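Continuing the series of single-chain predictions for the mutant panel. This is the parent chain; the variants come on the following pages.
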Amino acid sequence: MFRNISAWHVIIVLLVVVLLFGAKRLPDLAKSVGQSMKIFKNEVKDLRDDETPATTTAPVPPAGVTPVGAPPVVPPVVESQYVTPVRPVEEPSEGHAPPKA
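Parent structure:
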């Protein structure tokens, strides 16, 4: 597509750009295009860095597997206001018989 571009084509395109934007606005336009390209390159670099895995971190074991030598994981005891304390069952005394239904 761009194989047949000659110097005359480039000169004509530049003249059209100068006529459209004016000679005074071209430096500002070039500066904003340069800043946009810099931001774009930084974002592409950040995306590439995010895709590569970090080699300095230790591997994470699967869920439910305790590494060898690690103490067992015990869930913390949480006392709730909604749990009724359990009272021990009272044994009937020797002199009293349970009520009959």
